[in-house]
Design brief:
- This protein is an alpha+beta fold and 239 residues long.
- It folds into two domains: 79 residues, Phosphorylase Kinase, domain 1; 150 residues, 2-Layer Sandwich (D-amino Acid Aminotransferase, Chain A, domain 1).
- The chain is 29% helix and 34% strand.
- It is built from six helices and 14 strands.
- The longest helix has 24 residues.
- The mean pLDDT is 97.
- Bound molecules: thymidine-5'-phosphate.
- Thymidine-5'-phosphate (TMP) binds next to strand 9, helix 2, strand 12 and strand 14.
């Protein structure tokens, strides 16, 4: 482990130099943070669960021709990925009202949206990731119009695909956050990056609306590990 060259230390993942040019290793940590790190706790084994869940979801999306940085899971903690330049925007897709939008606009929790809502947040911890518009993204050259158009299309396709997948497993995909980047080996190619896991999605049980995601930690609703384990089991991911 000591020979690993750490390139970036994130809140829930570490990025390490990869074995080949234009590759990286993303290592899933056990840290859970919320409210811009105001809340922080370590849950032993969370990283292993997220690594497996994200591998499962990325593999499913790859079968539906979503371009991505994910190459393969290489062990309990690590994934081999294509190196990319991350676009500094969090792309949020919402199907049901809850979380920050319910608070900001004083909306009733749990209302299903007629069509998915796409939102953009500028990734900057010092500013608490402010919500921005498509025009901001272009005005400040965070991404081109062509790139955002492509990302919107991919986000909606990912939403349709994952909503269907989770429904089959008795889960509602309430909302989620995606990240996209430009491949280092070909900057004109925009790909899905980062992870998709209960850290970055809201998942509710279809019958009871029980929360099975990071809200369990954010709101202190019980065992985060039990919730993540439940998601893994529903997806048929063994220990
Ligand atoms: P929000 O309701 O807090 O804006 O969150 C919307 C979705 O985005 C939810 O599934 C959680 C996810 N998310 C992240 O993964 N990282 C973040 O930093 C934020 C703010 C939200």
């Amino acid at each position: 482990m000591s020979k690993d060259k750490i390139l970036y230390q994130g809140k829930a993942k570490t990025i390490i130099k990869g074995p080949k040019k234009h590759t990286l290793i993303q290592r899933f940590k056990d840290d859970a943070t919320a409210y811009n790190k105001k809340k922080h706790k370590i849950f032993k084994g969370k990283g292993i669960l997220n690594n497996r869940i994200s591998e499962y979801l990325m593999t499913h999306l790859r079968s539906e021709r979503i371009p991505m940085s994910f190459i393969k899971r290489i062990n309990d903690r690590d994934q081999l990925i294509h190196e990319c330049e991350i676009i500094p925007i969090e792309f949020v897709v919402r199907n049901t009202i809850t979380g920050s939008i319910a608070k900001k606009l004083d909306l009733k929790e749990g209302i299903k949206l007629k069509k998915p809502l796409l939102e953009y947040y500028y990734k900057e911890d010092s500013l608490d990731d402010p919500m921005i518009s498509r025009d901001h993204v272009q005005a400040f050259n965070w991404a081109t119009k062509k790139e955002i158009d492509k990302i919107d299309k991919l986000s909606l396709k990912i939403n349709t695909s994952l909503k269907k997948l989770f429904k089959k497993k008795g889960l509602i995909l309430v909302d989620f956050k995606l990240e996209f980047g430009r491949l280092k080996s070909n900057r004109s190619k925009v790909v899905l990056a980062d992870e998709i896991s209960p850290d970055s999605c809201r998942l509710w049980d279809i019958k009871t609306n029980k929360k099975l995601d990071k809200d369990v930690f954010r709101k202190g609703l019980g065992s985060l590990l039990a919730a993540y384990q439940e998601v893994a089991s529903r997806l048929g991911i063994g220990h």
